[in-house]
Amino acid sequence: MKCLLCWRESKSKYGLCFYHDEAYRSLKEGYQRWCRAYDNISEVKYLERLLELPECGEWIKEVAKMELKRIKERS
Question: How far is CA 16 from CA 44, 56, 75, in A?
Fold first, then answer.
């Protein structure tokens, strides 16, 4: 199975390659830290802010866009 976001092989339960899976885990861990720092910031606001940061990497941004789309489809 291929990664949902690129051409690499997926082995994670989320359908992501190693690199996007690492980015996904990093996003989830980072969200907990941002919640403590920014008084329970919403997940949507967190992801939108990450997309604005120039120092944020491409894999993180690709996963953030995927998560934003998923959240908006759920609403």
Answer: 21, 19, 23
